[in-house]
UniProtKB/TrEMBL annotation, chain B:
It catalyses: a 1,2-diacyl-sn-glycero-3-phospho-(1D-myo-inositol-3,5-bisphosphate) + H2O = a 1,2-diacyl-sn-glycero-3-phospho-(1D-myo-inositol-5-phosphate) + phosphate; a 1,2-diacyl-sn-glycero-3-phospho-(1D-myo-inositol-3-phosphate) + H2O = a 1,2-diacyl-sn-glycero-3-phospho-(1D-myo-inositol) + phosphate; 1,2-dioctanoyl-sn-glycero-3-phospho-(1D-myo-inositol-3,5-bisphosphate) + H2O = 1,2-dioctanoyl-sn-glycero-3-phospho-(1D-myo-inositol-5-phosphate) + phosphate; 1,2-dihexadecanoyl-sn-glycero-3-phospho-(1D-myo-inositol-3,5-bisphosphate) + H2O = 1,2-dihexadecanoyl-sn-glycero-3-phospho-(1D-myo-inositol-5-phosphate) + phosphate. Keywords: Cell membrane, Cell projection, Cytoplasm, Endosome, Hydrolase, Lipid metabolism, Membrane, Protein phosphatase. Its main location: membrane. It comes from Paramormyrops kingsleyae. InterPro entries: GRAM, Myotubularin, Myotubularin-like_Pase_dom, PH-like_dom_sf, Prot-tyrosine_phosphatase-like, Tyr_Pase_AS, Tyr_Pase_cat. Substrate binds at residues 285-286, 346-352. The active site is at residue 346. The keyword Methyltransferase does not apply. Belongs to the protein-tyrosine phosphatase family. Non-receptor class myotubularin subfamily. Its EC number is 3.1.3.95. It is a peripheral membrane protein. GO terms for molecular function: phosphatidylinositol-3,5-bisphosphate 3-phosphatase activity; phosphatidylinositol-3-phosphate phosphatase activity; phosphoprotein phosphatase activity. This is Myotubularin.
Length: 746, 577
């Protein structure tokens, strides 16, 4: 007799069925022991034989191979050619499934005689561990055993890996630099519509024209002279400011406090952001700051109808450190290296998630964004977002606000342009926030937090976005690949100046590619996964209708106008402004203020009662059950949670195949009209009936029709306290005699 | 009650054939979402209907069957606005609060009438199902024919026979038992099984012939009694498909199974049943489930717990119970799929056992995932095998605190919903079917869920399936893709289980009910477009043919070619659907 606990966890090997035709398998079984290196990639050291251990039941135990450490990655090359290498429908051109870009390493644990120790760069022991466990930033977990390798090689590879992935390094050591020296300066192939990079005046003017804003373009930082001079290196080359702000205002507080234009609402009001002024104690300085800020607010108010609202984000949202702490607790729950651990943590899953507070931080950001949207949309008030550094949470909030209000940013290129405008050119410190140089102290996943918020919007309104969930997941992975200029600099100034220096030493113009050049990572077929098949472009009819309806653009939401729109005139603001400048800030982000919450609810309810327009205003549902876990990103590598043949992906696939069918039909029709040969072309129909895709497709493998289910191995024994009820019997009757049968009620 | 004939018809108030109005009253509905609403309440022998004077505000349409408890709140002298009235607790996750004028015992008649019509059994009256005069084309009582269903499974065969039930009052009339067991054997086994619920076949695998057998616990007792007949009977079951080991799934936690010995029950000891493996599935009893759902109601009604949603949800344990039930069913299905026969029981074999067997069959047999098949499954595993709906729901009974009440069937439907959520293309029916089934679990409009076991009386009522089958189209999942002979294993991990928000929190207007859901809408748009294209193509090709036909100079090969293509095309598209 045994109970559930001892029964589960037995795994038998299922038969593996590839995604491609079986004939293709094994043909190119070339025994190649070296990874395919990228241009500029150099091997530091290698060790062989190394065992890669896996708890995926597909692979049963471990694989023998060679472990490399290069200036780009840690790479495991298997001795046997794995089927998987051939069959992945979605693969990255830059690194394979057994490669870990150095910047993607999150933590390394050493296995010292069954004792696991976290390896830190300072504590470099001479004694190398028997094995290493690598936790990656994209949530993969690798276990390598060094037991079989020669003492010297094992030591060398261990030290090499630790040195290159954990020790502090200089910007120049980031692989992108060696990479770009060795690739031909690829001519930028810009299709239409293109991603606006905001590195020249044209892009800025185009954006201003599109949103019909009326701000003043500043070119004085064209050569980054301001950035050099005033110690405020976050400023972009070009930017817009309210017409009433003077050039000399920039110098007053090193560029802080100057409202930088983000976006204009069709009503005329606009969204601005700025870094808050330095904290001062002395009365005279305080007075001067107050006067200065009043003037800045006045200038913003002047933009439209003299209404302005300052939104201090540092005061009401979690700090950068809070975000970092929360995320490091959160991600730990997905870096799972044994099945037992998985099922034990399953019992307390919800409360574990909650204690990390990550979902609640996402919710707060979305909530704040809705608050700002309400001011812009309902009250047509100009907004000035204020934040200590001015390039973290203000980027999150300003991008979210634009995403909710402006359907243009829900297209793929629109979204990329938004990220360029608000984050890359907007001066978000990717270098330090992503910790590419291993100086932990300023690390914080602020950009990831933004992507999380976008994912929440996407999963709630799946038809409104041109890009897919997979796009967001892949974009989040790209942050830690360190090949793209997008994510490796601290500011536009740093990017331009270091590229200039590099080009001079190299003797020719160097160019680090942008992440938006997706062909670097994926072939055409794989790139299709980045698009959302549910998205429907605005039809031509709708577009022309809108043109005729001007000046009432489609984005306008006509809300019930029961209450006359309140205007937040400048004078009302002085009180909160004074508070803001007083120096002490009470962190009250733990709970949203009741009035703000009530107002946002009302706004959301009013919006919800209207028919949904996917090309109009989009708001997130902020209720507890509505904020969810980004399962594809976080659970995709865990074998236990793969639903084979299930998940929403099955719906998406049905829609995709129907769309393809329609496309074929359409072509058929055209042919018919042209009196061409009407024979129907025999499309090869892959018999997928026995193949089951994972619900995390395209990230996880497929299975054949028969396989073992995952059976929970840990249960509530004693943990679940059901009190006295659990001891009772279903029916309060004695069973001593079978003649007592309860009669049927009738 | 002839008075209702004289009453003016009320716009918006639907009346079923056989439904009669009893009383109208000016009242205030204390809506937890939109505040106090003035209006009028109409009570019939079937429902409570409230219409707000403000036309835009919501109406209430509540079958009296869902009422579990009616209380008077506030006295004639209570202070405070709207403090005098009635509080109604419902079985379907909501409460209703009405306020009345404080003078002249204004609530007395309403209280009495509600009490009488909501709890007819407490005053020796009939449930509405017996007064309902609705007529439907198909008689839902005919949907399940045990002999037909067993023959679908290939039964009887050389190992299994169908026999008339003469042993157990709570069992269906036809039972499938091993050919090798005589009626006398069955009688002896019945003496050793609680309430004579002997092990009988419920499902057989079409290829490996492994079976799901269900029963109640053995009467082992404190003294550790054995029954040679029972032991031999289980051996016969094991041998039927040449399985070397029989797996006995006891749905209960180990300790409960042990504790049952004190009341004469127990479990199969390993000494007595040497070729059997006993596995406890740790599913808790009806009292624990009742308490769990009560806690869930606390955090979702009227307002959704906001600040600590996830930990509050966890503390109800509702999803944890769902997980254990699903995990148990997965193990049953896994065993059977790999060729081993299984025996499933709990204490009496009508609560947890029904959940496990029906869910395992849903995983194993694609037929039960069709609309009709699912109704058959409910009829078979729940109704015919005597799940005590009358006691578990407490139809028409004022005793709201009855310990026999428990949401076992709700829990089963929730498990089914979890499966449809994980496999959105594998089920022919949609979420709406599950909601309607749960609505009528309480409504007392149909006879389906009124009884504790199969009863002749039920044919005097209308079957819920008559109602459902009269409008099949609205219960169909457009994404359904037939996939027979395929086992579906849901993932029973908290990572994938989620609260069925559209059911449990449906009274909250903030929960968006997207009907039809956008994905579905998109899909049907595409389907419509496809039909349009196909029509156009066919037209073009017909006219093409016509041109060629009229033109005698056209070569005959071309003619046959073009006239054949439309059908070719159509079949091509149909097969790839």
């Amino acid at each position: 007799m045994f109970s559930l606990g001892s029964n589960g966890g037995k795994y038998t090997k299922p038969s593996f069925v590839s995604y491609v035709n079986p004939e293709q398998k094994g043909n190119d079984a070339l025994q190649e022991k070296n990874p395919v290196f990228l241009p500029g990639e150099v091997v530091f050291c290698s060790a062989s034989p190394v065992l890669k251990c896996t708890h995926d039941d597909l692979l049963e135990g471990s694989i023998m191979g060679t472990l490399f450490c290069t200036n780009f990655r840690i790479s495991f090359v298997s001795d046997q050619v794995l089927l998987e290498d051939v069959v992945q429908p979605f693969r990255n051109r830059l690194y394979g499934e057994n490669d870990i870009p150095l910047t993607c390493v999150d933590q390394i644990y050493g296995d010292y005689d069954e004792k696991r120790k976290l390896i830190t760069n300072t504590q470099m022991k001479n004694k190398h561990p028997n094995g290493i466990i690598v936790h990656c930033k994209d949530l993969r977990v690798f276990q390598f055993s060094l037991k079989l390798a020669k003492e010297e090689a094992a030591k060398k590879i261990f030290q090499g890996i630790v040195r290159h992935s954990l020790e502090p390094k200089s910007l120049r050591c980031i692989f992108a630099f060696s990479y770009c020296e060795n690739i031909a300066g690829a001519p930028e192939t810009q299709n239409k519509p293109r991603t606006l990079m905001f590195e020249n005046i044209v892009d800025w003017m185009e954006e201003m024209k599109r949103t019909k804003g009326n701000c003043k373009l500043l070119e004085i930082n064209k050569d980054f002279t301001i950035s050099q001079k005033v110690l405020f290196d976050r400023l972009p080359q070009f930017f817009f400011i309210p017409t009433n702000v003077l050039e000399k205002d920039l110098a007053a507080y090193q560029g802080k406090g100057v409202p930088i234009w983000c976006w204009s609402h069709h009503s005329g009001c606009a969204l601005f952001k700025t870094a808050s002024l330095p904290l001062v104690q002395e009365e005279s300085f305080l007075r001067a700051q107050k006067l200065y800020m009043e003037r800045m607010l006045n200038a913003v108010a002047h933009n439209y109808l003299y209404a302005v609202k300052a939104v201090d984000l540092s005061e009401t949202l979690p700090s950068i450190q809070d975000i970092q702490q929360s995320y490091s607790r959160f991600k730990q729950n997905f870096l799972i290296d044994n099945i037992g651990e998985f099922w034990i943590s399953d019992m307390k899953w919800f409360s574990t998630l909650e204690t990390t507070r990550w979902l609640s931080i996402i919710r707060q950001c979305l909530h704040k964004a809705v608050e700002v949207v309400e001011y812009l949309e309902k009250e047509n008030t100009n907004i000035l977002l204020i934040e200590d550094g001015g390039t973290d949470l203000s980027c999150v909030i300003s991008s979210l606000v634009q995403l909710m209000l402006d359907p243009h940013y829900r297209t793929l290129t629109g979204f990329q342009s938004l990220v360029q405008k608000e984050w890359v050119v907007g001066g978000h410190n990717f270098l330090e926030r992503c910790n590419h140089l291993n100086n932990k102290d300023k690390e914080s996943p602020v950009f990831l937090l933004f992507l999380e918020c976008v994912w929440q919007l996407l999963q709630q309104h799946s038809l409104a976005f041109q890009f897919s969930e997979t796009y967001l997941t892949v974009l989040s992975d790209s942050i830690s690949v360190a090949i793209f200029s997008t994510f490796i600099f601290s500011s536009p100034y740093q990017r331009v100046s270091s590229m200039k220096t590099e080009s001079q030493t190299h003797g020719s113009l160097l160019n680090i590619p942008s992440v938006w050049d997706w062909s670097l990572q994926f072939d055409c077929k794989s790139q299709e996964f980045l698009f959302n098949p549910l998205y429907r472009e605005k039809s031509k009819q709708e577009k022309t209708r809108n043109k005729n309806q001007r000046p009432k653009p489609i984005r306008q939401l006509s809300l019930p106008n029961a209450t006359p729109p309140k205007k937040y005139f400048f004078k009302e603001e002085t009180e909160s402004l004074r508070k803001m400048l007083r120096g002490t800030r009470i962190s009250r982000w733990m709970h949203l203020s009741d009035s703000a919450q009530a107002s946002v609810w009302e706004f959301y309810n009013a919006w919800q009662q209207k028919p949904l327009d996917y090309h109009g205003l989009l708001l997130p549902d902020l209720d507890g059950p509505a904020i969810r876990l980004w399962m594809q990103r976080y659970l995709r590598w865990i074998p236990e949670v793969q639903i084979f043949g299930g998940g929403d992906i099955t719906l998406v696939n049905k829609i995709t195949s129907l769309s393809q069918e329609l496309e074929e039909l359409r072509m058929e029709l055209e042919q018919q009209v042209r009196q061409a040969d009407p024979r129907c072309k025999s499309t090869e129909t892959v018999n997928k009936s026995t193949i089951r895709m994972s619900c995390f497709f395209p990230f996880a493998s497929c299975r054949s029709g028969s396989f073992k289910p995952a059976i929970p191995t840990s249960h509530c024994d004693g943990e679940m306290d059901m009190g006295h009820l659990a001891e009772r019997e279903d029916e309060d009757t004695e069973l001593t005699d079978n003649s007592v049968i309860r009669g049927c009620a009738d | 009650c002839n008075s209702s004939l004289r009453m003016e018809p009320v716009p918006g108030l639907p009346l079923l054939p056989g439904e009669e109005r009893v009383i109208d009253k000016e009242i205030i509905y204390m809506c937890p979402f939109s505040g106090a609403l003035k209006g009028k309440v109409f009570i019939t022998n079937y429902r409570l209907f409230f219409k707000s004077t403000d036309m835009n505000k919501s109406v209430l349409d509540v079958p009296l069957g869902v009422i579990s408890r009616i209380e008077k709140v506030g006295g004639a002298t209570s202070r405070g606005e709207n403090s005098y009235g009635l509080d109604i607790t419902c079985k379907d996750m909501r409460n209703l609060r009405f306020a009345l004028k404080q003078e002249g015992h204004s609530r007395r008649d309403m209280f009495d009438i509600l009490f009488r019509y909501a709890f007819p059994l407490s005053s020796n009256q009939s449930l509405f199902a017996f007064l309902n005069q609705e007529k439907f084309e198909e008689n839902g009582w005919d949907i399940y024919d045990p002999v037909q269903e067993f023959s679908r499974q290939g039964l009887p065969n050389e190992k299994w026979r169908i026999t008339a039930n003469e042993l157990c009052e709570t069992y269906p009339s036809k039972l499938v038992v091993p050919c090798k067991a005589t009626d006398e054997d069955l009688r002896k086994v019945a003496a050793f099984r609680s309430r004579s619920r002997i092990p009988v076949l419920s499902w057989i695998h079409p290829e490996n012939q492994a079976v799901i057998v269900r029963c109640s616990q053995p009467l082992v007792g404190m003294s550790g009694k054995r029954s040679k007949d029972d032991e031999r009977y289980l051996e016969i079951i094991r041998e039927a498909n040449g399985t070397s080991r029989l797996t006995i799934f006891d749905a209960r936690p180990n300790v409960n199974a042990v504790a049952n010995k004190a009341t004469g029950g127990g479990y199969e000891g390993e000494d007595s049943y040497q070729n059997a493996d006993l596995v406890f599935l740790d599913i808790h009893n009806i009292h624990v489930m009742r308490e769990s759902l009560r806690k869930l109601k606390d955090i979702v009604y009227p307002n959704v717990e906001e600040s600590h949603w996830l930990s509050s949800l966890e503390s109800t344990h509702w999803l944890e119970h769902i997980k254990l039930v699903l995990a148990g069913a997965i193990q049953v299905a896994d065993k059977v799929w790999s060729g081993n026969s299984v025996l499933v029981h709990c204490s009496d074999g009508w609560d947890r056992t029904a959940q496990l067997t029906s869910l395992a069959m849903l995983m194993l047999d694609g037929y039960y995932r069709t609309l009709r098949g699912f109704l058959v499954l409910v009829e078979k595993e729940w109704l015919s095998f005597g799940h005590k709906f009358a006691s578990r729901i407490g139809h028409g009974d004022k005793n709201h605190a009855d310990a026999d009440r428990s949401p076992i069937f709700v829990q089963f439907i929730d498990c089914v919903w979890q499966m449809t959520k994980q496999f959105p293309t594998a089920f022919e029916f949609n979420e709406r079917l599950l909601m309607v089934i749960l609505d009528h679990l309480y409504s007392c409009r149909f006879g389906t869920f009124l009884f504790n076991c199969d009863s002749e009386v039920k044919t005097k009522t209308v079957s819920l399936w008559s109602f459902i089958n009269s409008d099949q189209a609205s219960y169909i999942n457009p994404f359904y893709a037939v996939e027979n002979g395929c086992v579906l294993y849901p993932v029973a991990s908290m990572r994938h289980l989620e609260l069925w928000v559209t059911y449990y929190i449906r009274w909250n207007p903030r929960v968006r009910h997207q009907h039809p859901n956008p994905m579905e809408q998109r899909y049907s748009e595409l389907l419509a477009l496809k039909a349009q294209y196909l029509k156009k193509l066919e037209e073009l090709q017909l006219s093409d043919t016509a041109v060629h036909l009229s033109n005698s100079s056209a070569p005959p090969t071309h003619l046959t070619n073009s006239s054949a293509s439309p059908t070719q095309l159509v079949t091509h598209l149909r097969t790839s659907m």
